[in-house]
C-alpha cells in the first residue's frame, strides 16, 4: 500500500434528486482527502443529472460524471463496472446515491487496512437509518460474524446471508483492493438489480481473506421504495433469490477448490422453502432490535 493511496468511490444513482447532494457532501466532508468520486447516472429522468454535473464542475479534479450511451438504464452492475473501468484508485469503495458516510469513514477504513495488510476487503457494520424521515429508531447492524477478525475462504460464505444466518455487509460499508475486484471479474451484469452485491461478495468470500470490522461510519437509508422492499411487494424476491442460488451452484463447479460445507448449505437453500424466506427473518430480527432500542436507547 502506498503512503496515501487513492480511494475510488463508486456512486450509481437513478432519480435520487432528493438525496444526491447530501450523499456528495458526505464525501466532500471526509477527513481523508485523497479520493476520487465517480458519479454514474443510470438513466435518471429527474434533476439528479443536473445536481451531479454541478458538483463535477465545482470539483473537476475530484469528481467525475459518467453515463451510459443515450443515458440508458443498464442497472447497478453495469453502472459500477463503468465506474471501475474509469477509476484509478488503489482501493474501491461504494456509496449509493441515497446513503451517506460520517466524516471518519475513509480514514478509519484505511487505518483498518493498514493494520490488516493480508485483507483484500474490509466490511464494517452499518447504521440502518430510519430517522431521516420517521420516528423509528436507527439501529447499528454489525456484519453477522465474530467481530474484528480476519476470515479465510470460505468461512464467511458459510456464516453470512444468503447461505448462513448472519447479516451480510452493506455495500456502503465495504472497501476492497482494486486488484481483487478486477481479479473476480468485477460485477456480474446478468444481475442488474437485486443480488448483484451477493454475487460480488460470494466471489470474494470464496477466494480472498476478508476482515470484519465492528466500526460503523456509514448510514444506510431505509426507504419503502428500495429494491428489496419493491421486490417483496411485487412478489419477485424468491424468484430472484432462486436465480442467485442456481448461479452459485454453477459457479462452484468452476472453482479449483471444493468447499463441501458451502455445497451442503447451498443444497439446503435450494430445497428448503424456509431458506427462501431468509431475508424476511432478517427483517424481523432487525425490527425486534429496533423495538428493543426504542425502549432502551441506542448504543453506538
Automatic annotation (TrEMBL):
The keyword Transferase applies. Keywords: Transferase. InterPro entries: Glyco_trans_2-like (IPR001173), Nucleotide-diphossugar_trans (IPR029044). CDD domains: Glyco_tranf_GTA_type. Residues 8-123 form the Glycosyltransferase 2-like domain. Gene3D superfamilies: Spore Coat Polysaccharide Biosynthesis Protein SpsA, Chain A (3.90.550.10). One of its GO terms (molecular function) is hexosyltransferase activity. This is Glycosyltransferase family 2 protein. It comes from Hymenobacter fodinae.
Amino acid at each position: 500500500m502506498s503512503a496515501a493511496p487513492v480511494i475510488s468511490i463508486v456512486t450509481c444513482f437513478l432519480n435520487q434528486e432528493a438525496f444526491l447532494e447530501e450523499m456528495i457532501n458526505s464525501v466532500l466532508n471526509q477527513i481523508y482527502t485523497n479520493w476520487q468520486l465517480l458519479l454514474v447516472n443510470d438513466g435518471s429522468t429527474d434533476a439528479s443529472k443536473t445536481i451531479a454535473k454541478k458538483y463535477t464542475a465545482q470539483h473537476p479534479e475530484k469528481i467525475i460524471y459518467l453515463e451510459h450511451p443515450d443515458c440508458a438504464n443498464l442497472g447497478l452492475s453495469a453502472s459500477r463496472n463503468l465506474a471501475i473501468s474509469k477509476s484509478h484508485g488503489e482501493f474501491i469503495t461504494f456509496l449509493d446515491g441515497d446513503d451517506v458516510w460520517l466524516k471518519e469513514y475513509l480514514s478509519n477504513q484505511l487505518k483498518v487496512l493498514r493494520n490488516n495488510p493480508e485483507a483484500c476487503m474490509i466490511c464494517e457494520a452499518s447504521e440502518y437509518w430510519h430517522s431521516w424521515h420517521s420516528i423509528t429508531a436507527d439501529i447499528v447492524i454489525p456484519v453477522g460474524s465474530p467481530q474484528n477478525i480476519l476470515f479465510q475462504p470460505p468461512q464467511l460464505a458459510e456464516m453470512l446471508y444468503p447461505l448462513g444466518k448472519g447479516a451480510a455487509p452493506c455495500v456502503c460499508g465495504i472497501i476492497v483492493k482494486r486488484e481483487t475486484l478486477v481479479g473476480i471479474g468485477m460485477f456480474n451484469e446478468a444481475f442488474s438489480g437485486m443480488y448483484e452485491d451477493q454475487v460480488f461478495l460470494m466471489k470474494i468470500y470464496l477466494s480472498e481473506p476478508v476482515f470484519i470490522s465492528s466500526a460503523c461510519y456509514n448510514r444506510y437509508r431505509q426507504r419503502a421504495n428500495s429494491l428489496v422492499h419493491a421486490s417483496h411487494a411485487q412478489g419477485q424476491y424468491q424468484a430472484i433469490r432462486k436465480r442467485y442460488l442456481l448461479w452459485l451452484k454453477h459457479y462452484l463447479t468452476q472453482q479449483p477448490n471444493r468447499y463441501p460445507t458451502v455445497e451442503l448449505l447451498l443444497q439446503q437453500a435450494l430445497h428448503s422453502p424456509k431458506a427462501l424466506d431468509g431475508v424476511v427473518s432478517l427483517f424481523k430480527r432487525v425490527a425486534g432490535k429496533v423495538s428493543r432500542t426504542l425502549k432502551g436507547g441506542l448504543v453506538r
